[in-house]
Amino acid sequence: MNPPRPLVDHLIYVVPDLEAALPAVEATLGVRPVLGGRHPEWGTWNALLSLGSDVYLEVVAPDPVHAASVASRTDAGGEVGETGEGGGRDLRLATLFGVDRVRAPRLATWCARAESLESRAAAAAAVGLDVGPLREGGRERPDGSRVSWRISDPTGDREGGVVPFLIAWGTTPHPAGGVPGGASLGLTLEGLSVEHPDPERIGRWLKALEVEVLVREAPAPALVAVLNTPLGEVVHRSDAPIFPLT
Known about the structure:
The protein has about 250 residues and is α+β, with helices and mostly antiparallel strands. The protein has helices spanning about 20-30, 65-75, 115-125, 160, 200-210, and strands at about 10-15, 35-40, 45-50, 55-60, 105-115, 135-140, 145-150, 165-170, 190-195, 215, 220-230, 230-235.
């Protein structure tokens, strides 16, 4: 495993029920996540944990408040986001990290920080990787303050989640600084690696994105995260459940 570079922005866990997952995350990682906010245009909501000064963990689930309205709009042929933030693109719930299909909590994918999204997207395109359209987004924190970002398309498969999407925070303070966890509580990201049947191609793509992680050859794609926790080292893989829900 290699230490995470600053460009590793956050890991994404998907769970079927956010409130049920919070105690399970705490039992596994030793720190309880706090609610982050809702994404009405995607029908999801999240909870967050810090994994260091500039890295965090996002736990994402279907939002019972907004998921039904998202599903009704897409069933009617509308575009999710067309009346919300950053519209003009069909970002369906069914393609956002597979949250509508998840049955057991798992590590789904990851995000890399890139302040110049356009240059990173151009470099990726030059080696055959389409990061999708760039768009603006945001959410309200529980305290009413606003979080804003620019991202590449988060809804694509990206080789089973091993290739990150990109985010630029602009003037918004990084979320890792305002949530529980981090080095002070003994919860940090120790390493991140990728497994894939075509490691050379995936390695070229990651190099174009200016992200350095170890890529190993394996029969199927998998993302592997190693976390230091107050309870000891934890290894979570995207091809296996990360903890049980009772």
